[in-house]
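Exercise 7. Given the components listed, write out the predicted structure of the assembled complex. Treat all entries as one system.
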Amino acid sequence: MWEYTDKVREHFLNPRNVGEVEDPDGVAEVGSIACGDALKLTFKLDENKRIKEAMFKTFGCASAIATASALTEMIKGLTLEEAEKITNQHIAEYLGGLPQEKMHCSVMGREALEKAIDHYRGRPSKAEEGEVVCHCFGITDKEIERAVLENNLATVEDVTNYTKAGGGCASCHEAIEELIRKVRGRMESQPPPRPALSNIKKIRMIEETIDREIRPSLKLDGGDIELVDVIGNRVLVATRGMCASCQAADRTLKLFVETKLRELVWPDLVVEEVAS
Amino acid sequence: MKTVYLDNNATTQLAPEVIEAMMPYLSDFFGNPSSMHSFGGQVAAKVREAREQCAALIGCSPDEIIFTSCGTESDNAAIRSALTVQPEKRHIVTSRVEHPAVRALCADLATRGYRVTELPVDASGHLDMDQYRESLTPDTAVVSLMWANNETGVIFPVEKAAELARERGILFHTDAVQAVGKIPIDLRANAIDMLSISGHKLHAPKGIGILYVRKGTRFSPFLIGGHQEKGRRGGTENTPGIIALGKACELAAQHMEDENTRVKQLRDHLESELLRLIPNSRVNGDAVARLPNTSNISFEFVEGESILLMLNEYGICASSGSACTSGSLQPSHVLRAMGVPFTMAHGSIRFSLSIYNTREEIDFVIEKLPPIIETLRRLSPYWTAGDQVCTAQ
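Answer.
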């Protein structure tokens, strides 16, 4: 039996946003019934070009369903530029992790998202470029190279876990090894790009920064601050103690808290106060 | 939550009588049956009795029984022995739907200079006997065909196949792990040379198996060591396991009729109700030439692992031939060999019953499964609710 996290189980048993958005702005279908899983993602934008509604239909195992459900929750409220930054690792982390053998479900989620955004923008999908390497599952060299690069994969087994490539007749294993060597050779000759922060890492870094740099100063005035949530670039906090009733709290948030967090965590974040 | 256990082709619960029979040999009577003292000797007597009980179930002589550790060991021992005693022959005949214990072994042997013929099966899971006959050559050392398929329950005509092999001087082995205890077997009346049994499929514990080797069949041991099992399988006997298996064989003979009447009716009830209540479902494998306890049903446009995990929420245990549960990324090799379409293969569920199942349990599954399939079909992009039409292939 797979060891699924409680969150995977919960999203599987109570999937969010099942169905198809009416009159959608973006549509994508990835996977196929022959491959054993498939995902149809639809979304609609609001007047500010943020994703207002996102819905899915999935044929597949528990983790495929949970991944799609999580993805629709993650992208709601985001601009397409923000949504584009979601990687398969982010989706897996949102669910508290996936078994290695099931990482391909998270990759399928990311592919669907990207394809739906491409559809909205009227661009051909990136995934459709490239040459098919794994004929059993119809996986291209581009898809394999990308999975290796983004997830730092080292073996054919890794590639199979993340893309399914090589999981059928095994005749493409040499070609996959060649692709791994090629990509890893490139990775070693160039410094790796700064990895995008996942939500879990963001939360951890924000909490550490609050603890170390922010809370001690606020405490001097009898105030406190608490992290409520992180949604895309929005860092939602609640103020406590003296800060909650202080007239200058707004200024404190913007000038002090936001500046500090932007400096130490990531530069594009926006701090917002929510009612506690 | 109560467990409804319908996964008896995977493993079975120990019969209470079996536990009772074996327990003293785990505690008080721990002697070695090979010892010269009567403390060990009394265990040897009990092992002898167990050997007779096992022989009685399959209609052979007690000295044709070799106790092993599992079905896989028995399969390995049989096929490797057949090759060792006939070094001039380099050809093996088997089928595409064998258990991995035979299939993976043959695949390995194929990389070591042996020629392996994997016979195909038709849509109902059957062999083409003409094709089988044609596959037998003067170079063929051994045929290994399963008696009954673990996934579909389909029964191969192994007795006929064994005769054809014997006429040509070819050794015949059958993996009868799923068949023994479920259908009558009489080795006095057929030409089978070697047959594998696994204890835990018939209410004995894991870790005990049998290889039957017909008297007069040349045999080369798989485990070389002491003189146990008349030198045919070295290693101190698993005495509690052997005694348990003896008891389990005796019980299986007693329950054979129940298995083929009441259990079969329960299986048929489960199957016909599920097919009636769930559209786009079908049985995989021949409906007639089949074990009385097994039902392999496909539910179109949904995926097996999801079905299993939702059944699990109700304590219902079954298994699936879908890719996500097969440990590979492709659906079961058995269903693929039968040409089951992908839309069906990924949504296959195997229910395998035992004499311990009740009508209430079966009715519970009949109540719980249809809404599960409906829920998953609502999630499936290939399913259009209402008109029940597939929108994509």
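Discussion: The first strand of chain B starts at residue 4 and ends at 5. The interface with chain A takes residues 301-303, 305-306, 309-310, 313, 322-324, 328-331, 342-343, 346, 378-382, 392-393 of chain B (CB under 8 Å).
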